[in-house]
Amino acid sequence: MTGTNFSSWYNQTEGSIISSCICRRPNSGNGADFAITNSITPTYTSRIVGWFNTSGGHYISVIANNNTVFLPFVGVSINQTNIPVKKAISLADKNMRVSVNGKLITGDLGNTGVQDYLPNDFNRLLIGYEGIFAGYLNGTISRLTYYPKKLKDNQLQFLTA
Predict the structure, then answer these.
(1) What gap in Å lies between CA 41 and CA 150, rounded to an integer?
(2) Average pLDDT over residues 79-105
(3) What is the distance, to the nearest Å, from the Cα of residue 7 to the centroid of all Cα atoms in its chain?
(4) 97-129 pLDDT, tens digit each
(5) How many helices (H) and strands (E) does the chain have?
(6) What percent of the chain has pLDDT over 90?
(7) What sign does the CA torsion over 7, 11, 13, 16 have?
(8) Which residues, including other chains, have CB under 8 Å from residue 13's CB and lie 6 or more apart?
(9) Which residues, in sequence order, are CB contacts of 17 under 8 Å at separation 6+?
(10) Closest residue by Cα to residue 99 from 138, 137, 134, 60
(11) Which single residue of 20, 21, 75, 91 could bond 141 by disulfide (Cβ 3.0 to 4.6 Å)?
């Protein structure tokens, strides 16, 4: 989704994304349930990605100018394939929060030395694909919701419980 189909609803200064999906990708590569990016793959430099790694771990990454702010989910064991996972992220500059299956992630969400700032150059939504480090989703997405505001912690927990 690009152009006014994207820009008519996306808020560049804050927002929240909730995803409910099942990964069926045992050891066959990374896969993404969604990505919000700033250009066409593989050249984009900023993105928000919900993805699964080859072992079935569940993550959201926020990347700005190719500097990764990596947001790992806790509470979901490795090799958790074929099990529904609800994950959410709420974003605003210097204020990113994540929740998975009703558990709020606390502590340092980014890599040391990387600022947790929200890029403001997004112009497209990809569903079931990311294209750089996470390919096509081998699974199902039962819900993908976007709110044009940063939700509170208790709202994230409720929406992912």
Answers:
(1) 27
(2) 81
(3) 18
(4) 888 888 887 655 554 444 566 778 889 999 998
(5) 2, 10
(6) 24
(7) negative
(8) 92, 93, 118, 120
(9) 34, 36, 48, 50, 88, 89, 144, 145, 146, 147
(10) 60
(11) 21
